[in-house]
Design goal:
The complex is a heterodimer of chains A (306) and B (539).
Chain A (H helix, E strand, L loop, with lengths): L2 H28 L4 H6 L7 H10 L6 H13 L13 H36 L4 H13 L2 H15 L15 H28 L1 H8 L4 H38 L5 H10 L3 H29 L6
Helix pairs in contact in A: 1-12, 5-8, 5-10, 5-12, 6-8, 7-8, 7-10, 8-10, 10-11, 10-12, 11-12
Chain B lengths: L1 H19 L15 E6 L15 H7 L7 E3 L5 E3 L2 E6 L5 E6 L13 H12 L7 H5 L3 E8 L2 E6 L6 H4 L10 H4 L3 H6 L7 E7 L3 E6 L20 E6 L3 H10 L4 E2 L4 H10 L3 E7 L5 E5 L9 H9 L3 H8 L29 H10 L3 E2 L5 E3 L2 E2 L1 E7 L5 H15 L4 E7 L1 H9 L5 E2 L10 H6 L21 H10 L6 H15 L2 E5 L2 E7 L2 E2 L2 E3 L4 E3 L4 E2 L1
Parallel strand pairs in B: 1-10, 1-11, 17-18
Antiparallel strand pairs in B: 2-3, 4-5, 5-7, 6-7, 8-9, 9-10, 11-21, 12-21, 13-19, 13-20, 14-15, 15-16, 22-25, 23-24
Classes of the chains: A mainly alpha (306), B alpha+beta (539).
């Protein structure tokens, strides 16, 4: 891992963030409706003075290209402006919501890794035919979060009465939303890990290890896991991005706080500064996670970081 | 004058009712103090808790526990005292004398006086407040004069007999004049009123926690209990998803939910178990399909009539809403005074619908759709998935199918709220359902007067039927200026709209609440039907 590698990555990250900001800006501009609706409430009948004041405060009378330039400059200087709808600084609103979403995303990622390790372990032991496991993994990887959430609520809350269906101040209420995000991710990770492990099991070193009298568990822990962890890490980086977007649905269904839910509200009312701010933060977190994954990969396998 | 006489009788009746009825369903136990109640609402989280800013339903649902109005209303739409004892209009309609209740304080210790009323009206009228609903309601108010501490004289620029009805809405609630002087951001986070609760904490995207106002003394005339609330704490949770909201109620994680689906209400009513239902009507316009006369399809009255009788709406409402709501044939909600029902105008008759369309010159094509001069008989209906519940969307699908049997090509266009407002604003519809809440028959002036065709500065127009009728305009204006003739004038106005076949009424716009049976004393504050927790206690 070299200095130029790090510099390239940082430059790349800046480029990604700029692209995200531009695309989001154009996308929101394309949503039908009026920015004034966002500020004064949809269908508002506010007075002309109020309208004039809102236009002036938020610079809505300027040409699109000027507004784009202002938005980009304020993003670059970390002055993220004031939310149209909440009339509060965007940075405060995000700071309020980000911890809840990160907690959810990291818990889900951890759960997904544990589940994927378990299924890959079962594969190696051959306790279940790999076709059945593979089918389960494919199905769970394809499960929509919304449907899965409802099934989990009906089973664990309504029928069994074990877990609260909505978020409470008790950390136990994190389980169902985290599971909702973890199960499809684990399905995807499990597939990748099992493939690598089964390949490794056929390899020369596995045969000689077994010949030395290594048990299956020993083989799994000391040899196969190391092989499976690299692709799992790469997938984890990707999965983190999908967890952040899955949070939009999960936070609404389980009535959790978070930037996913804030994003949903903000898009619905065309709150441009807030939408931009949240998406930039999500993109930045995603870039950061991929960066960490790449560094870890390079540490585990020196061939990566060149 | 009429108003004040009626009012004094009503005060008496309300006072008697207050001591007499109490709580009928929990006669076995006495109300007890304490406890926390959690109310999960489907309505969006307000972006500002001061209902003077903007002015929508979510603000009302969150604000009514903290900020109170000058008047309240009965389910029949009669005005009753709340923070004000009475409101009397002068002969010429150019002044209102409002007498206030004595000894009321805001929760920051500021006394509630005529000066406070003046400060609130000025706050709503100040452009910097960016008020919509309150601003419109005070359109004809010139200024407020504090004649003495308990007498506010409101000077008008033109008569408005519905002014006191407007003052019954939370969007014109009274806030501490001292608190109003803080920054907009601060006032949006923690508005100060005279209500039974004060805002303790607002966790954005999650909940608002309220605690009891220990010195509460301003219960409305409809209340069954004076003095401070029984509950220690009230929590308002924002829970947009219908299935998890109901699951949370079943699990006991929340005690009360709103926007319950008709099937779960029917289930709760049938089982008579742990969950009970409470349904109220939101005053203002009924839920209705308004036909845009500016388009090709509905410019012809024969086609409008045909569309109205082409679908069996009675049966659709009955089955899709599981008997929880009745079909309406009125332009306004059943709780809004001076509404008239027109059962005969909307009788299902597909044969007659076919005849009307034949007469209008629309010829049935081989694909089952009628055409005329190369135009197809299309009806575009934009559907806001934020505003229309699934049962309502299913009802529209039934109308689509049945109107299709006589040759209409109905397309439903589901969209988010922002796109829906854009489509409505651009007249990109032939028919539309648009809710409009207001605790006064004056709602008819807002949605049917030709002034409402001109878009507001934000691009939205309240009038969707696109009809300019001088007689109708004049009736609606006079009805809001002449208290004595009001009923007759509104009846004539409604007859014009019915005769023109501009609006297809469907059913009352409702507040649908489910609650656990350990919640006692829950009712809807009839001013727009919001759950009211002052009298609630936990068994």
């Amino acid at each position: 891992m070299t200095v130029s590698f790090a510099a390239r990555r940082l430059g790349g990250t800046a480029l990604v963030l700029w692209a995200v900001a531009t695309i989001v800006f154009l996308a929101i501009t394309a949503i039908p409706g009026d920015d004034l609706d966002a500020i004064l409430g949809p269908g508002s009948n506010a007075s002309e003075e109020a309208v004039a004041r809102a236009i002036d405060t938020h610079g809505l009378d300027r040409p699109l290209i000027v507004r784009y330039w202002i938005q980009m400059m304020s993003l670059a200087t970390f002055d993220w402006g004031v939310s149209f709808s909440y009339d509060a600084p965007v940075i405060d609103l995000i700071a309020d919501q980000l911890p809840a979403t990160l907690t959810l995303a990291f818990t889900s990622l951890g759960l997904a890794l544990v589940i994927a390790l378990l299924t890959s372990f079962i594969s190696v032991y051959g306790a279940l035919p790999w076709r059945i496991l593979s089918t389960i993994e494919v199905v769970s990887a394809a499960l929509p979060h919304f449907a899965l959430a409802i099934v989990l609520i009906v089973v664990f809350s309504t029928w069994l009465g074990l877990l609260p269906p909505v978020s409470t101040d008790d950390p136990i209420s994190l389980i169902l939303p985290a599971l909702t995000l973890a199960i499809p991710t684990a399905g995807f990770m499990g597939q990748v890990m099992r493939e690598t492990m089964l390949d490794a099991m056929e390899a020369q070193f596995s045969l000689s290890a077994r010949a030395r009298g290594e048990t299956m568990s020993g083989l799994y822990l000391r040899h196969l896991l190391r092989h499976a962890i690299l692709p799992a890490l790469t997938v984890a980086g990707w999965a983190f991005g999908s967890l952040m977007s899955g949070a939009v649905v999960v936070e609404a269904v389980f009535a959790r706080q978070g930037i996913g839910r804030t994003l949903l509200t903000a898009v619905g009312v065309r709150d441009m500064p807030l939408v931009l701010g949240i998406l930039i933060v999500i993109a930045a977190v995603y870039c950061l996670v991929t960066l960490i994954v790449d560094i870890l990969s390079a540490l585990i396998d020196p061939r990566v970081g060149t | 004058m009429l108003f004040s006489r009626r009012l004094s009788v009503l005060i008496l009746v309300a006072a008697l009712a207050g001591c007499g009825t109490g709580d009928t369903e929990t006669e076995q136990t006495q109300p007890q103090r304490g406890g926390t109640l959690t109310f999960a609402t489907a309505d969006a989280e307000p972006t500002c808790l001061d209902p003077h800013v903007g002015g929508n339903m979510p603000q009302k649902i969150a604000g009514i526990h903290v900020m109170e109005s000058l008047f309240t209303m009965t389910e029949e739409g009669e005005l009753l005292p709340w923070l004000a004892e009475s409101g009397v209009m002068s002969e010429d309609g150019m002044t209102w004398t409002v007498t206030l209740r004595d000894g009321i304080e805001f929760t920051d210790g500021t006394p509630f006086t005529a000066e406070a009323v003046k400060a609130n009206v000025e706050h709503i009228q100040d452009p910097a407040t960016e008020s919509s609903t309150g601003y419109l309601a005070l359109e004809h108010v010139d200024r407020v004069e504090a004649a003495d501490p308990l007498t506010a004289i409101i000077h008008m620029t033109q008569p408005d007999v519905s002014l006191m009805e407007s003052f019954a809405q939370t969007w014109l609630a009274m806030e501490s004049p001292v608190a109003l002087q803080r920054s907009m951001e601060e006032n949006c986070t923690s508005p100060v009123g005279t209500g039974p609760f004060v805002i303790e904490e607002w966790r954005k995207q999650h909940s608002i926690t309220y605690s009891r106002n220990e010195s509460y003394s301003s219960a409305p005339a409809t209340a069954g209990h004076e003095g401070p609330a029984y509950l220690d704490t009230l929590v308002l949770r924002f829970m947009p998803d219908a299935s998890s909201r109901y699951a949370a109620l079943q699990a006991g994680d929340v005690d009360v939910i709103d926007s319950a689906q008709p099937d779960t209400i029917a289930q709760a009513q049938a089982q008579d178990g742990q969950i009970r239902a409470l349904i109220g009507v939101r005053s203002g316009a009924s839920t209705r399909l308004e036909l845009n006369t500016g388009g090709v399809t509905f410019s012809d009255p024969l086609v409008r009539q045909a569309f109205m009788i082409a679908s069996d709406i009675d049966a659709g409402v009955e089955t899709l809403f599981f008997g929880t709501v009745e079909r309406s044939t009125s332009l306004v909600a059943s709780t809004t005074p001076h509404g008239t029902s027109h059962d005969d105008a909307f009788v299902f008759d597909q044969d007659r619908a076919n005849d009307l369309l034949d007469e209008a010159g629309w010829v049935l094509g081989s694909d089952g759709v009628r055409t005329k001069d190369g135009e197809r008989l299309t009806v575009r209906i934009p559907v806001s998935t934020n505003q229309s519940i699934p049962a309502e969307q299913s009802l529209l699908e039934q109308i689509q199918a049945q109107a299709g049997q006589v040759g209409f090509e109905v397309t439903l266009e589901p969209m988010d709220l922002a796109s829906w407002y854009a489509a409505a604003g651009a007249w990109e519809f032939d028919a539309i359902t648009a809710p409009y809440g207001k605790s006064s028959p004056d709602v008819m002036r807002i949605i049917f007067h030709s002034d409402g065709i001109e878009p507001a500065p934000s691009g939205y127009h309240a009038n969707n039927i696109n009809v300019r009728n001088d007689e109708l305009d004049s009736l609606l204006e006079r009805a809001n200026q002449d208290a004595a003739e009001r009923g007759e004038l509104y009846a004539q106005a409604q007859q014009i709209i019915i005769d023109g076949a501009y609006v297809l009424p469907l059913y009352d716009w409702q507040t649908r609440v489910l609650y656990r049976d350990d919640v006692a004393g829950l009712r809807l504050e009839t001013n727009l039907s919001a759950p009211w927790f002052h009298e609630v206690w936990m068994k």
